[in-house]
């Protein structure tokens, strides 16, 4: 079934050309309704909580954006071996993946109750997906994000066994390569040294928005499949 388009947002995010060229933070407020989230992603924005309960949502469009070219994923020999040690599933435990990513014991945890609820709603409508790694019937790693056309916007990942989240990323890239043709964009928000080691590169905000425009015209990919 194709994703269900929710009612449009009552908020507007403005023209990205008018965003502050030196600030990743481009908006404060609005809500986390499905229509608002989709409108934001289609404009190149994503939400994060302020960190204080009750404060408005912050919206970011990084000046330097982290993206993973699908032909640039770095898979080491040890990671290739790890890929044979896990079972990969898609969209079978979305809520559990988000809950694991939101574990308050994780350093720099940012996913609060409102974010969890918002992405669960997106998942129910067919826009948010999880890629999971399993071992011995136990969920040991995974990632989740939002898919719109040729865009997959990665939100967070977790692991309970070595390389489990990396294996989920490898599986995601393989599915994105296989399921549709055309402009594809795997967004990881900000580049970190860990992500750089996997092949993530930085592009300017303007370049990201150009790629996003092309990616949004790609037919919806079918991420669902057997591991």
UniProtKB/TrEMBL annotation:
Enzyme Commission number(s) of this protein: 2.3.2.6
Pfam families named in the record: Leu_Phe_trans (PF03588)
Keywords per UniProt: Acyltransferase, Cytoplasm, Transferase
Protein name per the record: Leucyl/phenylalanyl-tRNA--protein transferase
Catalytic activity annotation: N-terminal L-lysyl-[protein] + L-leucyl-tRNA(Leu) = N-terminal L-leucyl-L-lysyl-[protein] + tRNA(Leu) + H(+); L-phenylalanyl-tRNA(Phe) + an N-terminal L-alpha-aminoacyl-[protein] = an N-terminal L-phenylalanyl-L-alpha-aminoacyl-[protein] + tRNA(Phe); N-terminal L-arginyl-[protein] + L-leucyl-tRNA(Leu) = N-terminal L-leucyl-L-arginyl-[protein] + tRNA(Leu) + H(+)
GO MF entry, a single one: leucyl-tRNA--protein transferase activity
HAMAP family linked: Leu_Phe_trans
Chief place of localization: cytoplasm
Family recorded in the similarity comment: Belongs to the L/F-transferase family.
Subcellular location: Cytoplasm
Annotated InterPro entries: Acyl_CoA_acyltransferase, Leu/Phe-tRNA_Trfase, Leu/Phe-tRNA_Trfase_C, Leu/Phe-tRNA_Trfase_N
Natural source organism: Nocardioides hankookensis
Function: Functions in the N-end rule pathway of protein degradation where it conjugates Leu, Phe and, less efficiently, Met from aminoacyl-tRNAs to the N-termini of proteins containing an N-terminal arginine or lysine.
Name of encoding gene: aat
């Amino acid at each position: 079934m194709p994703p269900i388009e929710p009612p449009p947002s009552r908020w507007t995010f403005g023209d990205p050309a008018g965003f502050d060229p030196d600030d990743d933070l481009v908006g404060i407020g609005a809500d986390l309704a499905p229509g608002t989230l989709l409108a934001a992603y289609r404009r190149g924005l994503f939400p994060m909580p302020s960190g204080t309960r009750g404060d408005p949502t912050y919206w970011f469009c990084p000046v330097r954006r982290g993206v993973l070219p699908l032909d640039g994923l770095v898979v080491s020999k040890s990671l290739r071996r790890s890929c044979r040690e896990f079972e990969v599933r898609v969209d079978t435990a979305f809520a559990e993946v988000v809950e694991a990513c939101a574990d308050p014991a994780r350093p720099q945890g940012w996913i609060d109750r409102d974010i969890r609820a918002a992405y669960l709603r997106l998942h129910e409508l067919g826009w948010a997906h999880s890629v999971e790694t399993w071992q011995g019937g136990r969920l040991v790693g995974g990632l989740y994000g939002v898919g719109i056309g040729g865009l997959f916007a990665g939100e967070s990942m977790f692991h309970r066994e070595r390389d489990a989240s990396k294996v989920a990323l490898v599986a995601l890239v393989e599915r994105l390569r296989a399921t549709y043709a055309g402009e594809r964009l795997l967004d990881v928000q900000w580049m970190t040294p860990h992500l750089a080691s996997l092949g993530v590169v930085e592009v300017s905000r303007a370049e990201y928005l150009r790629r996003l425009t092309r990616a949004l015209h790609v037919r919806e990919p079918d991420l669902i499949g057997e591991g």
